[in-house]
Amino acid sequence: MSAAQVHQLLGAIGTSHILAFFLVLARVGPLFVLAPLFSSSYLPPQVRIVLAVGLAVGLVGIADHGQQIPGSPLALTGLVLEQLLVGGALAFALAAMFAAVQSAGSILDAVSGFSFGAMLNPLTGTQDAILTQFYTLVGTAVFLAFGGDGWVLRGMARTFQLVPLDGAVALRSVASGSLALFSNIFVAALELAAPVVLAVLVTDIAFGMLSRVVPQLNVYAVGFPVKVGVALIAVTVSLPFLGGWFGDQLSGSVGSALRELVAF
Q1: With CB atoms 3.0 to 4.6 Å apart as the test, which of 71, 82, 115, 205 could cross-link to 109 if both were Cys?
Q2: What number is the average pLDDT over the span 30-39?
Q3: Which one-letter DSSP state was computed for residue 116?
């Protein structure tokens, strides 16, 4: 394609449409940096860039409808920062939900003894213990089974109706909502880990009483494999409840992120 044809094509598209595309790309970009699954290390950076551009191309028609994009560099810079904030708020809400799942696995690894062995987690690229990796994989599978990717994309499309490209963002609401999500991570992790923690605690109490009755018993040698077995059984029994919790948290995370953007 010659330079004249490129210039003609750009003229047909229009400057406002090009600016709108880059603003949409700025809003979509945080999903592929912070959001679970979209930012997975399984996806090479080149693939994430292509997906972000493709998603931006698909959403620009919705976002650019009836919008007046200013052409001054200062105003455009402010709009780009606002788009990053909007996309970052949605991505952070999802990341906080997955952080709670990983934290629950870390708590269970600590109380059950699995924290002695750590392996590379292919989803995060860091070293995690067994149950942390297991909960991460289960959470990802449940996320896909519930159509979480569709929830995220619909939520992203909804943001363009709530906060247009040239609209204002409720900064105070976004900051307070993000702080509430961050502070709720540990509480949500305890909700997931509570059944297994209670089962392991009862096992520890039972072995403590047994050591008082039979002092000759090597409680550590006998109790460690029993505690691991009890933890695995409790995880197996409580795992079906993860699906319902995940569905509620997914809808709540997307909904709270959207409410933060318009609450003044």
Answers
A1: 115
A2: 84
A3: G
- Per-residue pLDDT tens for 53-72? 888 888 887 777 666 777 67
State the pTM of this model: 0.74
Beta partners for residue 129, in sequence order:
118
Give residue for tokens 């709108």. Answer: 20
Q: How far apart are CA 182 and CA 65, in angstroms?
A: 34
d(CA 208, CA 193): 22
DSSP state of 119: E
DSSP, residue by residue, 22-84: HHHHHHHTTHHHHSTTTT-TTS-HHHHHHHHHHHHHHHHHHHTTT-----SHHHHHHHHHHHH
Sign, Cα dihedral of 49, 32, 15, 62: positive
Rounded Cα–Cα distance for residues 3 and 17 (Å): 20
Question: Do 233 and 132 touch, CB atoms closer than 8 A?
Answer: no
In angstroms, the CA 169 to CA 264 distance is 9
Query: How many domains is the chain built from?
Result: 1
